[in-house]
Every structure is written in structure tokens, then in C-alpha cells.
Amino acid sequence: MERGACNVIYVDRRANDEYVKRETLSDSLIARTSTGNVGQSYFALGKTPPAEVHTNVEAILSVFNEVHICGSGRSCLSKITQLVDGTKSNIPTFVILDVPYDQELRLKRLSREPRTPSPTSSRIIRVDKGEPDDTYGTHLLTHVSSEISSRNFSKLVVPIVMLTGLAIETPSAAAPSSLNKTLVLTDTVKLSKYLDSGAVDVLSSPLSKDRMHGLAVHAYRLQKEAQRGEASFLTTKRNRKLSWVGVDDGKPYAYLREAMVSNLMTGICNPETVGDSVDASDFELDQHRRKVVEDRVATWAFSAHDFTDDELLYAALAMLQHALSSPELSQWQLTEGNLERLSAMTLLTYLADELIVFLMASRAAYNEFVKYHNFRHVVDVLQALFHFLVRIGTLPSYPPTNKDPSTEKSPIAALLKPFDALTLLISAIGHDVGHPGVNNAFLVALNAPLAQLYNDRSVLESFHCAAYSQILRRYWPKVFSDIAMRKLMINNILATDMGLHFKYMSDLGGLQEKVAHDKGVTDSWSVKVREEHKDLTCGLLIKCADICNVARKFETAAKWANILTDEFSNQGMMEEELQMPSCLFGGPPVHDDIIKLGESQIGFMNIFARPLFEAVTDILPAMRFAVDEILTNKAIWEAKIDQEKQRRKTKTPMNLNLLQASFAADPTPSPFSGGPNKPNPALFTPPAAEEDAGRRGSNGSVHGGIQGSRRSSAAVALASRENQSLSRRGSGDANLTAILVTHTPNVGDGTPRGSDAGVEDRSKADRKDTLTRSPSKKKDRDNARPVTAPAPARRSQGKHQSTFD
């Protein structure tokens, strides 16, 4: 191969995007700015002097004819795609990636900042660099390597690590710089990390001409090895790219495309390769805030929006510690070995640190770019379950008290033991691990790798179970290795699939009838029957907790509604970019429309939340408080809808008392955004009469005419299914917590609309094949999707399936 016959991409955020040839180097922008005078620290406000960058470019051009300089990870990915697509011959593409040597220290500092979006935290102004913050350095290396492994990039794309910022490792002021580089490049631990991440070689900055000659030799060898099969690769890559937005956006497309499956398979098949970077010392929270969190955890007024990430983690820690304080659960402590010699205070600190590490690892498994299904939602579900278990008497009173519980356990509550309570809490922590921010229907319609892996059935829930199991295997092995606990945990997480909601409602109806028939006496039940009903009860409790956002205090419930709307809007934008029919019921939501938002919440309460909570209250009377909150919130939403309709008649401005103007303009939930106004009690009305409950213009409000709170949930499930359209599939969104109404004009005169009016049937949307198929013809789209529920569920569902994918 002729010297210089290869592509070279040099990635350094200190430089500008530029294409430089050897003969034009002296006139290039990098040459003209080589005399800049800026700060020395790489991560300081100033930048490293560009003279070093100029030296690196000179070294590259001493061997190769041209170089593409990229100042960001985004431009690097775009350039790789451009070069690979535009290259006719088999020539390598070297990607020299700037990796700051102190990046790990910087990321550790940043890890203490809030990660999970919330609308009530103050916003820190950051400079928008037009790219994801983590798509640089080692993260960019990992991303490029993943693209190569999944055959989105050719194997001729060769990532090379170039370490910068090495001055921090200088042994002394008098030591020569060459000694510094020697120490760094002989650090086998660090070098192995880069090589394991996909780097072919590791260089130090400034680059030397000798090392560039070595790259030229390597390029020739690669060219000879890659001559075979290149044509088939290009065909596969181009077909695959037809169904995906370009690689310039790393999240969430790349995550959906390969990371979810590839990372999961790596964790299962090669657990020893998963790095351990969790340190309990990274968790910091002063005693005052700990007391505040503990007090709030004890009440149903708990609002996850009011706390930082570390405060949310401490809330989870407090709940787990309280559960583990039961003598029956002492064997489930994380630590193994003899700790009898430790003092009581030292032992408590040690055990707390172990739990903190587990919780930090779990928190890290949730995606920051997902607005609703993140760690904040997880702690909300965890606290709801914890509160339920304390109320029904399965867990001791919280805060701890010496008084015996005044309420007697119901027969069904007596089936649950502390073991089941702990399993429920552990299940809640991992029930949405790795959620991508889209629903099951989206993954199935797109034929995503994850949908293929799980055969289109409970796709996300199955993934959550598998991914969370790897966290437990590493950080809580006692739970992972216990067959009974693992089985119950999987049952609990799969229960959160809303596609199986009416199957659970049917089973709940059967349990209600059995309890009524036996007059509340369970002693005559066989061991198998008791075990089945206990598992069903656990599944029902986590289902209630998963959709408890509509049963929270109204101010908290309204925040959750807006955040979920934002997440659905993001999915709608992805569907538009991918040119695929919407997989959201009723299409993408409408922002800043109180009528649409209120109708969606009322519809969800009537179809899902209220029947579920009322039927559960029938077997667990201590849950009545949640039903009361749902009725109160429903009345408030109805009042706000009526007020908005009157305002539109008179064209009088209305303060929604949900969001401030700034939040309405920027609906993205973030730990840095301002909090909403508190609701005005003067605008609230008492709960509406029962006979008026079904008259609102919300999609699918089919239970308004069903009277009484102690009805059979089997009848409710049947009534609900009779009002649902045929679905493409039975397994819906893992945590559908709102009904999204269609874009029909609002009725200003308050005339009731039919529950099915204006609803576009999205169930016949074509299924895209992301690899080789173009959109199917209409006759293909008309075929019904396979049922995703297990055999018993199919019998109960019949031909009517849930449309809430």
C-alpha cells in the first residue's frame, strides 16, 4: 500500500473541525492559531494551548497525506459514516481519539451532581456544546467499538487512544517529561482498560513521527485482511441504516439499536469483564437532610420531586434497612462472614455501605436521558410499596414504635410474610432498569433487537428482569442465588406489563369471589392455592405502586402527568423521524392543554387505576386511602376542565395552577428547572357524585357508570375489554400511566363526547423490519399481532386485547 493511503480522523475538542492536507498545513486554521495563550489544565475554564494540537497534526501529516480534524464526538461519528460510505476501495480509517488522562477523576466529581430529571430542582446553567456530554473520551471509544462490533462500522475503522493531560502524573518538577510518559504507558491497569474498551493502540500526546510510521504498517496489514467480505458488509450496513436515524445522535437510537442487547449479553455470558467502579464514599448527605427524608418516607404525601439523587438513594436505603430489621430477614443481609466482633455502630455503618453500593449500582443502570422511567420514578414506586406493606401489617410500623398495630390483618394480608415484603421492595428497585423511554409497541413495530430477543412478548419487562439480575448477581448475590426469591421477583416485575392488566383483573375477580365464598377464612386452602394467591397479591401490589402517580396528592400527581407527557412526546418525535405510525394510544400528546391533560388522567383513572385500587381494597381494606385520593384527584381534574371550557368561552386568561409559565415553555423535567406553583384550594371542588363520574369527554372512560367500590374486578375487566379496539399485540407499555387522547378539537360547550369518538385505530400500524424490509403493504398491516399473554391470559382475554401498547 502506498504510504499515506488511508483515512485519518483526529478527535480533539481543543481544535475546530477542519480538513487539512500536507501541502496546505501552513495555511490551515490549526497553524494560524498555534500561538494561542490559554490555561494549562485540560478541564479548567481555559483550554490547553493549541500548539500541542498543531504538533500532533504535523506528526500525522509526516506520514499520511491528509487528516480530518474533529472537535467533538458528534462530528467524529458523522465523519466516520461519511468516509465509510464514500470509500470505494478497502482502505483503513484510523480514529485517533483524545482521551484525557484525568477523565476518570472528573467523571467521579460529576457523578455527585444530580442525574435524575425533576421539575422542582434549581437549574444550573451549562454551555450547550451541541453534543451529549458523555460522547467523548472513553465513552466515544466505547461507542465506536460497539458500532464496529455490531457491524454498523467497518472493521477497517481502527480506534486509537491518544492520552493527553499527562502533566498531572509528573513525579517531580525536575523529572524529564519522557519519564512521565514512560510511567503512564507502563501502567498496565489503565492500558488494559483502553484495550478492553476496543482501542487497537494507546499513544501519548504530543504524537511522535515514529509511532505514525507504525500505524502505516498496521494499515497495510488491515487492508489485506479485510479484502474479503467487505462487499457483503456494505450491503448489510446500508440496508440497516434505512430504518434508523443517523449515527450523529448517540442516544437513544444507538441504545435501542444494539447497546441494550449487547450489554445484557456481555453481563450474562462474561460477568467477569464488567468493571466495578462503585464506591460508597461517593454518597454524601448531611444529617439534617437525612432526617427530612426519613420523615417524608413515612407519609403518603411523599413526593419524589422534592429530593436530589442522593436524597432519593437515602430514602431507598432507609426503607430497605427498616425491612431488614425484621428478625426473619437477618439472613438476607448483604455481608457474609462473621461480624460478631464488630461494635454495633461499626456493624451498622458497614451494612449501610454495602446497601449504598447496591443502590448506587442500581441507580447507575437507569438512563439519564429518560424523563419518566428513571430512578426518581423507581423511588416513588418503592415508597408506595413500602407504605402499602406497612399499612397492611406485613412490615412493622415506620417510624419504629413499641405499640402493637391497632388494625387486624385481613385474611389476604396474612398470607404475606416479611420475605415477600423484602422481595417486593427489591423488585421495585429494579422493575424499570435500563428503560429506553419508549413503550413495548414501539420496539415491536421497529423490530428492535430487544423485541426479537424476547419474541415481542413483555419485551421491556423481560429485559428489566434479566438486566437487574446481573446487578443482583454482582452486588447482592444472596438474592440472585435464592430460587424462591428470584422466582417471585420475576413474577413481580412481569406484572408491571400493562398488556396483561386485564388478565390480572380477571384473576383478582376470582380471588374476590373465593374470599367471599369462604367468608374470609383461608385455613382450608391448600398450600398450592395459598402460594398462588400470595404471588397474585404481590403482583397486584406492585401494579398499584407502579401507577400510584394518579393516587398521590394532586400537586405531585400533576407533576408526574406532565413529566410522562414529555416522555411520550419524545417517543412521538422519534416516530416522526423514523417515519413510522405512532405507537402511542391516540397519537403523541398535546402540550399545554389542560383539557387534554385532564381528560387523559381521568380516562386512565376510570379504566385502570380506580378499578384496580378499589378491587384491591376489597381484599386489603387498609388500601382504602389510595382510592380516596384517586376520587379527590378526579374531581379536581374535572373542575379544572370545566373552568378551562368556561375560560375559552369568555376568552379569559386562566392560570392552570399546575405549571409556571417558564415550565410550560420548557416542559423538560430536570433537576435544574424551577418548580411548579402550588395548587389553589379555592379552585378545587369536592368529589363529584358517582352517577356523574362517567360523563366527561375522556377517551375510554368506560367505568363511570359502574357503582360501588367493592364490585367484582372480573366484571370491571370484562366491561373494559368490551370497549377496547383490537390490538396489534397484547403486551403494552411496561408502565403506561396515562391515556393520551386524540387531537380532536376541544368541546367548548361541555357536550359529552362518545368514549370512542375521534380515536384513530393505531393497531394496524405496519411493522418495520430494521434490517432488510421496507414498510409492508396495507394487507400486511391489517393482520392482527400475536397475543403476548401466557395461555391462561389468552383464555381470559378472548378476542379483546388491551389497546394501550
TrEMBL record:
Claim: Hydrolase is one of the keywords in the record: yes
Gene Ontology biological-process annotations: signal transduction
Basic and acidic residues composition bias: residue spans: 759-784
Residue stretches of biased makeup (Low complexity): 709-721, 785-795
Top-level division of the source organism's lineage: Eukaryota
Pfam families the UniProt entry points to: PDEase_I
Matching InterPro entries: HD/PDEase_dom, PDEase_catalytic_dom, PDEase_catalytic_dom_sf, PDEase_CS
Domain PDEase span(s) in chain numbering: 281-644
SUPFAM superfamilies, sorted: HD-domain/PDEase-like (SSF109604)
GO terms of molecular function: 3',5'-cyclic-nucleotide phosphodiesterase activity; metal ion binding
The entry's keywords: Hydrolase, Metal-binding
Disordered as annotated region, ranges: 664-805
UniProt cofactor note: Binds 2 divalent metal cations per subunit. Site 1 may preferentially bind zinc ions, while site 2 has a preference for magnesium and/or manganese ions.
Required co-factors: a divalent metal cation
E.C. numbers: 3.1.4.-
Keyword Hydrolase assigned: yes
Family: Belongs to the cyclic nucleotide phosphodiesterase family.
Protein known as: Phosphodiesterase
Organism: Didymella exigua CBS 183.55
